[in-house]
Design goal:
The structure is a single chain. The protein has 250 residues and is mainly beta. It contains 1 helix and 9 strands. It has an 8-stranded antiparallel barrel with strand order 1-3-4-5-6-7-8-9. The longest helix has 20 residues. The chain is elongated.
Length: 250
């Protein structure tokens, strides 16, 4: 199933360029580069379930866009990024009354957070409607995203030997001792937003994006505890692009 998803997304991303070679629509040859920054809310989809909250982290990177064609009112392009982003999860450690679990040794509420740093490379089919070089444009984009694991960090206020298992509503704690098994992450990302273009100055993009990982962070063989451990993220991003080549202004 994962392979069919990726194949469909690969075809989706390169559909605009295929129509370029077929000479359908109004040709473009516009290339832009820029920077982006954002705010990411991330969690891990564990099976069995791990009670958790969304972990909030920053992200930043480089952006690239090649506009190849305007087909009727649709501006078709390929959009890519190279980003540094922190993923992971923050556990929601509660008792059966939905109250924080107090550690007996320290006397404070138990906390656990895991942060995993990645280089992410999304490649999108980018479709826009509206003003092309001056004014506002709405856009939608979708495609595959690949991640390359760098390192990880655990933040907690208790030792594994002293955690309060008596009061915890969930007895699932195996995730706290695991390290990342799969250094390569992949999945599907979709986003939508607004772009405002100013001649000779550039393009400003504000976007909301969702990413669903198709790979597992930890081992998922029959001898492993978790059958699934994929990344799920919601991001808000602000990007700035400036034109390197510009063949047409409308």
């Amino acid at each position: 199933m994962d392979q069919r998803f990726l194949l469909a997304l690969f075809l989706l991303v390169f559909t605009p360029t295929s129509s370029l070679f077929a000479q359908v629509g109004d040709h473009r040859n516009d290339f832009s580069i820029g920077v982006n920054g954002g705010y990411t809310m991330t969690r891990i989809g564990f099976t069995p379930k791990v009670e958790q909250q969304m972990l909030s982290t920053p992200s930043f990177g480089m952006s690239f866009r090649y506009v190849c064609e305007k087909y009727f009112s649709t501006i078709c392009s390929v959009y890519g990024e190279v980003n540094y982003v922190s993923l992971g999860w923050q556990q929601d450690i509660k008792d059966v009354r939905d109250m924080p679990v107090i550690n007996v040794a320290t006397g404070v509420a138990e906390e656990y957070k895991r942060t995993m740093n990645y280089i992410q490379v999304p490649i999108f089919a980018h479709l826009g409607w509206g003003r092309e070089s001056k004014g506002m444009q709405f856009f939608f984009q979708a495609g595959p995203q690949f991640g390359f694991f760098l390192n990880e960090k655990t933040t907690t206020n208790y030792d594994a030997a002293s955690r309060n298992m008596t009061d915890r509503a969930s007895a699932v704690v195996e995730q706290e001792s695991l390290t990342v098994d799969n250094k390569f992450d992949y999945g599907i990302a979709v986003g939508a937003g607004l772009e405002y273009s100013i001649p000779r100055l550039g393009h400003f993009l504000l976007e909301g994006r969702y990413y669903y990982g198709l790979g597992n962070t930890f081992g998922n063989s029959k001898r492993d505890y978790f059958g699934r451990s994929n990344h799920n993220t919601i991001s808000v991003k602000l990007s700035y692009l400036f034109d390197i080549t510009l063949t047409k202004n409308n």
